[in-house]
């Protein structure tokens, strides 16, 4: 029961961020919501599924997937923000990060 509550909490974070992302106009605001989904939503869903499955091969694959999502998401967010800032003229292309 606790496992499914954790999964539900993760799904709730994801749905909330998706609904709010549809409403905000700027890409930088949407990137903040992406951070919440990868920092809270995905790990909550992963932990809930691992607890409900017990320690199996499927749980190990879920753990690896969540780990790499959390590892790569900040890099993708930073690169997307940098490209958006260049596109809007806020940052010069030749300037360092």
UniProtKB/TrEMBL annotation:
GO terms for molecular function: antiporter activity. One of its GO terms (biological process) is inorganic cation transmembrane transport. InterPro entries: PhaG_MnhG_YufB. Pfam families: PhaG_MnhG_YufB. It comes from the Bacteria. Keywords: Membrane, Transmembrane, Transmembrane helix. The chain crosses the membrane at residues 6-24, 31-52, 58-79. This is Uncharacterized protein.
């Amino acid at each position: 029961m606790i496992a499914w509550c954790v999964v539900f909490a993760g799904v709730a974070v994801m749905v909330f961020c998706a609904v709010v992302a549809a409403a905000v106009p700027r890409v930088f605001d949407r990137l903040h919501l992406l951070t919440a989904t990868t920092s809270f939503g995905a790990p909550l869903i992963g932990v809930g599924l691992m607890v409900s499955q017990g320690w199996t091969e499927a749980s190990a694959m879920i753990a690896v997937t969540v780990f790499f999502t959390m590892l790569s998401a900040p890099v993708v967010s930073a690169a997307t923000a940098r490209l958006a800032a260049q596109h809007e003229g806020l940052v010069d292309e030749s300037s360092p990060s």
